[in-house]
Amino acid sequence: ELDVVTFGETMVLFTSELMLPLEYNDRFYKQIGGAESNVAIGLRRLGHSVGWFSKLGNDPFGRYIHKFIRGEGVDTSRCIYTDEAPTGIFFKEKYSATNLKVYYYRKNSAASLLSPDDLDEDYIASAKILHLTGITPALSPTCRETVFKAIEIAKKNEVKIVFDPNIRLKLWDKEKAKSVLLEIAKEADIILPGLDEGEMLSGRKIPEEIADFFGKEKTVIIKIGEKGAYYQSKNESGYVEGFPVSQIVDPVGAGDGFAAGVISGILRNESIYSAVKRGNAVGAMAVGMSGDVEGLPRSEELEEFIKGVISLQD
Ligand code: ATP
């Protein structure tokens, strides 16, 4: 009886306190980072019931991630600990608010050991929506198999699939990424590419044409940064303007916030237009605060923001 189930790798993130190249920086603060857990936390804050799981290293970082996500009220009962590999970590180097670079230490991480046998079919079947990203299939062959097994379970049990391609070319080769991500997109009900991702996957440049490429029987929502998003579903299509952001503090995590907003709208049986507007609002709020999840709003905060009561300048 969950609204949404998602899974994938969440890592401990060490963010530079100083705007210096990583090799000269000696101050970091600890956060967590993972697209799927960002979406899970975003949805939970908006009042939905969410399950997130992963394979975690049996180490302090694995426990930290688990406690953090559970502490947000996300169901983590299907998380698995392993002694075979450590929890992945990564570092964020900052040159300015918008000029960031990340360094991953995630190869052969605990999460990369996720395999189809780790899936609890009844758990996935109990959800209304399965949220997947294109990061998980890039982590390892067994992770890829796990994604396809989860898709099979969702289809069999009429669980809707929301797919965010989240292309990470640091993790895999472009052609391989393209073919696997297109295969997943084919199975998804709702696809959430960024404009550049849509371009890469479809070979087309204009949002309308990219959406057509994926097909009219799907809901395709293309993120266009500060401009908002374009959506196309069976019966409707159009642009939804973004919300103004007075100061971009941290552009990372906007896409995950957007996904949480859109999924939340869908769960509330809103029109696609309203769901996309909700996505734009959460995305805009996420870029206005540091960290991937810190800026994600609770329901009341989101309603106020949409009504224009909250100005980020305050
Ligand atoms: P990410 O950097 O998290 O991977 P993304 O590339 O998937 O993000 P973006 O298009 O950058 O996606 O942002 C997602 C959504 O967040 C946008 O569609 C928009 O609604 C909102 N958003 C992002 N940047 C801004 C901005 N500068 N001003 C207002 N809204 C924004």
Please render the helix and strand layout as text.
Blueprint lengths: L3 E4 L3 E6 L11 E6 L1 H11 L4 E4 L1 E3 L2 H12 L8 E3 L6 E6 L5 E6 L15 H5 L3 E5 L2 H4 L1 H16 L3 E5 L9 H14 L2 E2 L3 H8 L4 H8 L4 E5 L4 E5 L4 E5 L12 H14 L4 H16 L11 H9 L7
Parallel strand pairs: 1-4, 1-9, 2-7, 5-6, 9-10, 10-11, 11-12
Antiparallel strand pairs: 2-3, 7-8, 12-13, 13-14
Helix pairs in contact: 1-9, 7-8, 9-10
Bound molecules: adenosine-5'-triphosphate (ATP).
The site of adenosine-5'-triphosphate has 23 residues, from strand 13, helix 9 and helix 10.
The set of bound ligands, ions and cofactors reads: adenosine-5'-triphosphate
CA(first)-CA(last) distance: 40 Å
* Helical residues, percent: 25-40%
Q: What is the residue-averaged pLDDT?
A: 94
Strand percent estimate: 15-25%
CATH topology of the domain at 4-8 and 36-59 and 120-307: UDP-N-acetylmuramoyl-L-alanine:D-glutamate ligase
Number of helices: 11
Tell me the major beta sheet.
8 strands, mixed
What does this structure look like?
The protein has 11 helices and 14 strands. 37% of the residues lie in helices and 21% in strands. Strands 4-1-9-10-11-12-13-14 form an 8-stranded mixed sheet, sandwiched between helices. Strands 3-2-7-8 form a 4-stranded mixed sheet. It has a domain at 4-8 and 36-59 and 120-307: Ribokinase (UDP-N-acetylmuramoyl-L-alanine:D-glutamate ligase, 3-Layer(aba) Sandwich). The protein has helices spanning 35-45, 60-71, 121-125, 136-139, 141-156, 174-187, 195-202, 207-214, 254-267, 272-287, 299-307; strands at residues 4-7, 11-16, 28-33, 50-53, 55-57, 80-82, 89-94, 100-105, 129-133, 160-164, 190-191, 219-223, 228-232, 237-241. The protein has 314 residues and is an alpha/beta fold. It is globular and about 50 Å long. A hairpin with a 4-residue loop joins strand 12 (219-223) and strand 13. Helix 1 (35-45) crosses helix 9, helix 7 packs across helix 8 (207-214) and helix 9 runs antiparallel to helix 10. Residues 194, 223-226, 228-229, 242-243, 245, 248, 251-256, 258, 279-280, 283-284, 287 line the site of adenosine-5'-triphosphate. Adenosine-5'-triphosphate (ATP) binds at residues 194, 223-226, 228-229, 242-243, 245, 248, 251-256, 258, 279-280, 283-284, 287.
